[in-house]
Amino acid sequence: MGMMVVTGAVCQCAFGTVPCTLQATSQMTCLADGKPAATIQDGQPGINLSGFGMCTSLANPAVAAATAAALGVLTPQPCTLVSAGPWITSNPKVLAGGIPCLLSDAVLMCGLGAGCIRVVTPGQNKAIV
Description:
Blueprint: E1 10-13, E2 20-21, E3 31-32, E4 35-36, E5 54-55, H1 61-69, E6 77-78, E7 95-96, E8 99-100, E9 107-109, E10 116-121
Antiparallel strand pairs: 1-2, 1-10, 3-4, 5-6, 7-8, 9-10
């Protein structure tokens, strides 16, 4: 079972250097611990997720180019998150505002750097789904 994710949750990309906080914007009527519950649609770069510092994935063309220019020495570049679809959650039957809730065991794939984004801290500890 996962925990319901809310505004203020901490997320981390496998290739990012820093975590970021999630901002739930897809619905505002369902609250958990007094905060808006996130849904699988809350994965938009710059709106829901601000980025993960520097990207270290060679699948990211900017990192690959900078690394090649540095003669093979890994050269991280600024994260430019590109969501590859909505969050993938374990229980899409739990809804908030008619949209599947985002649970703490969900993953979001980055289409640019091939990173896997996970929820580190759900932002609340009362609502277990």
